[in-house]
Write a structure and sequence with these properties.
Elements (H helix, E strand, L loop, with lengths): L2 H10 L2 H9 L1 H6 L9 H11 L5 E6 L7 H21 L3 E5 L10 H17 L4 E3 L7 H14 L4 E5 L5 H8 L5 E5 L14 H20 L4 E5 L3 H14 L7 E5 L4 H9 L3 E8 L4 H10 L3 H10 L1
Parallel strand pairs: 1-2, 1-8, 2-3, 3-4, 4-5, 5-6, 6-7, 7-8
Length: 308
């Protein structure tokens, strides 16, 4: 793992840095590259501007690994409210949750109940629920959770990380469900025993998994989502899709708010289905550091934002 990325991922685990950053107006200002604000209204307003060029939206409230089950109840209630806000504003938007936001560490049963309640509200409001993948210790439980939710609510989606060695077999396991999968490279500090340490290997795994999903897309057995800002990789996969006869509407590209805006707009003009992921909330520190670790060159931008 590159040294810069290792340092940033290590910093993401620091409680002291977390406390400092979330109280610092200077650091908060720098986060505006990746999120429009901490309040849900900030995210909703930003989304209303983005959809003007035909992009879709996915929202997520930051925060993970809750320690009290009653806090998970509050997160569930927030998202139930948020689905209603999406519907009221008529936004083409979905919601993405982390299982540990909804009590996975405390009660798998309760977490499943919460996810089913959210998926039901999503369906009732014309939206959909996405389940994020956390570090490798959560993969088995998250796959089981998705299988339960997807069986009852077919529009539900799941994120899968291409840097994990196990992901091809996990994808094979899910294919009978006609899964909706957002491929991402992965942003956690994983040991080499479970994940590729080299970026080139992760990139190749991303491409190989995308091709497998495109093969499924031809028969309607899978919906591939390319969750990456790697324009060269997206172009390579899009060329392969054309060669395979998979139309642009059969797969999508997902990118984060504030990153590669010009590329997002260009892909949309070229006829691709593009969705922008917007995060909000005050528990942004660990998520923010992982975003910087994905591309350490972003640190220079942040320094300019803080002190420029």
């Amino acid at each position: 793992m590159p040294i810069g990325r290792s340092i940033l991922l290590a910093a993401a685990q620091s409680d002291a840095l977390n406390r400092f950053a979330t109280k610092s107006p200077v650091v908060k200002r720098a986060t505006r590259k990746f999120m429009p604000g901490e309040k849900p209204e900030d995210a909703l307003d930003a989304g209303a501007r983005i959809v003007a060029d035909g992009r879709g939206l996915i929202y997520t409230k930051l925060g993970e690994a809750l320690t009290r089950l009653e806090d998970a109840d509050a997160v569930r209630d927030h998202y139930l409210w948020f689905f209603d806000q999406i519907a009221a504003r008529r936004l083409p938007a979905h919601v993405s949750i982390k299982p540990t936001q909804l009590g996975l560490d405390q009660s798998e049963t309760k977490c499943t109940e919460h996810c089913l309640a959210l998926a039901a509200r999503a369906e009732a409001t014309g939206s959909a629920l996405w389940i994020d993948m956390e570090d490798h210790t959560y993969v088995d439980r998250t796959l089981a959770l998705y299988e339960t939710v997807k069986a009852r609510f077919p529009r539900s989606g799941l994120a899968m990380q291409t840097y994990l060695y196990r992901t091809p077999k996990d994808l094979e396991r899910l294919m009978p469900l006609q899964p909706i999968i957002r491929l991402v490279k992965g942003a956690y500090a994983e040991p080499e025993s479970v994940a590729y340490p080299r970026k080139a290997d992760t990139d190749q795994a991303f491409y190989d998994l995308a091709v497998t999903m495109l093969e499924g897309a031809r028969s309607g057995a899978c919906t591939p989502i390319l969750g990456t800002h790697d324009e060269a990789l997206v172009a390579r996969i899009a060329a392969k899709a054309e060669q395979m006869g998979v139309a642009k509407g059969k797969y999508e590209v997902h990118m984060l708010y504030g990153i590669k805006d010009a590329a997002q707009a260009r892909l949309r003009r070229e006829g691709h289905a593009v969705t922008t992921l917007i995060s909000y909330g005050d528990a942004w520190y660990r998520w923010y550091m992982r975003r910087l670790a994905e591309r350490p060159a972003n640190v220079l931008f942040v320094v300019k934002s803080m002190f420029g």
